[in-house]
Specification:
six-stranded mixed beta sheet; Rossmann fold; 14 strands; ABC transporter ATP-binding protein; Alpha-Beta Plaits; about 290 residues; elongated; binds adenosine-5'-triphosphate; four-stranded antiparallel beta sheet; 11 helices; ABC_transporter-like_ATP-bd; alpha/beta
Length: about 290
């Protein structure tokens, strides 16, 4: 049995909005990234995992419990960071954290204090006067403070500065080392690359790819940028090479293998400059987002 099991769920909001026949699992100890463009259906899926809404069709379970029917039991086991946190704005940060700790029957506050210190959060002020980043840190403290074995995080680093984003990556790595099962949606490719074992990509409410991170790293293509001596040669080269783009005397092509024929063809021309770089994970994901074939 997988820790998280999403089986053929559909939640149809009409007008092609919602999620359609979505299935995936998260295994024990796995960190899975849930990626997709705005409005793709990530939060809608996560809300069904939290039991806030029921699927029209299909089923969602965590540790064998139905996420909607057994919502209370499921939620009690989870650490959850919502995409948009509903705060009690008149409370101070620390009052709100204590309030949530009481709701979750957390007696030992040491983990919460450890997280407050780690995230360099000053929780004394009123929430209504806090920045987006400070509020996000409060959300992270609340999600992690009960030391849950399963974490569901909806865009966890939204609003955090780069230093805090990398501290968050370290936090996920530590939790992963402890065997935690984590599902997190994200728009930040670097954090996904550094933390996830697998990524599930959703677009227009449907899963379009599930990829092992190692496999993705291995499949990264190489991007070649070539500056020709004269434009006519660049034009001729582009005509003979599919997927090649040109800007004046410069051409750009993305290759996976096939490099020998490319270099031999290039040698027929006078070349001013040649640069090669490995495709970033972001560029790779953009192919999925844009719907290009892999
Ligand atoms: N309660 C609702 N009623 C009608 N439409 C909804 C409802 N909730 C979500 N939607 C629509 O369903 C689609 C998926 O929304 P969702 O919030 O799941 O996307 P997302 O992948 O989390 O996007 P983002 O990255 O922008 O947070 C969107 O078009 C959204 O407008």
């Amino acid at each position: 049995m997988s820790v998280i099991e999403i089986h053929q769920i559909t939640k149809d909001y009409g007008d092609h909005k919602g999620v359609f026949d979505v299935s995936f699992t998260v295994e024990k100890g796995e960190v899975v990234g849930f990626l997709g463009p705005n409005g793709a259906g990530k939060t809608t899926t996560i809300r069904q995992l939290m039991g806030f809404i029921a699927p029209d069709k299909g089923s969602v379970s965590i540790m064998g419990l139905d996420c909607f029917k057994d919502a209370d039991k499921v939620q009690a086991q989870l650490g959850y960071l919502p995409g948009e946190i509903a705060f009690m704005e008149d409370m101070t940060g620390i009052e709100f954290i204590h309030f949530m700790a009481d709701m979750k029957h957390i007696k030992d506050f040491s983990k919460a204090q450890e997280l407050i210190d780690y995230l360099e959060l000053d929780p004394k002020g009123k929430i209504r006067r806090m920045s987006k980043g400070m509020k996000q840190k409060i959300g992270i403290v609340i999600a992690f403070m009960q030391d849950p074995s399963i974490l569901i995080l909806d865009e966890p680093t939204s609003g955090l500065d780069p230093l805090m984003q990398s501290k968050f990556v370290e936090l996920i790595k530590k939790e992963k080392a402890k065997g935690k099962t984590i599902l997190m949606s994200s728009h930040i490719f670097e954090e996904v690359e550094h933390t996830c074992d697998r990524v599930v990509i959703i677009k227009d409410g449907c899963i379009i790819a599930t990829k092992d991170m190692e496999e993705l790293r291995h499949n990264k293509r190489k991007i070649y940028e070539v500056r020709f001596e004269n434009e006519q040669d660049a034009i001729a080269f582009v005509e003979n090479h599919e997927g090649c783009t040109r800007d004046g005397k410069e051409i750009m092509i993305t290759l996976k293998g096939q490099v020998d024929a490319f270099i031999k063809d290039l040698s027929k021309y006078t070349i001013r400059d040649l640069q090669m770089r490995t495709q970033s994970l972001e560029e790779l994901f953009m192919q999925y987002y844009g719907g290009e074939d892999q």
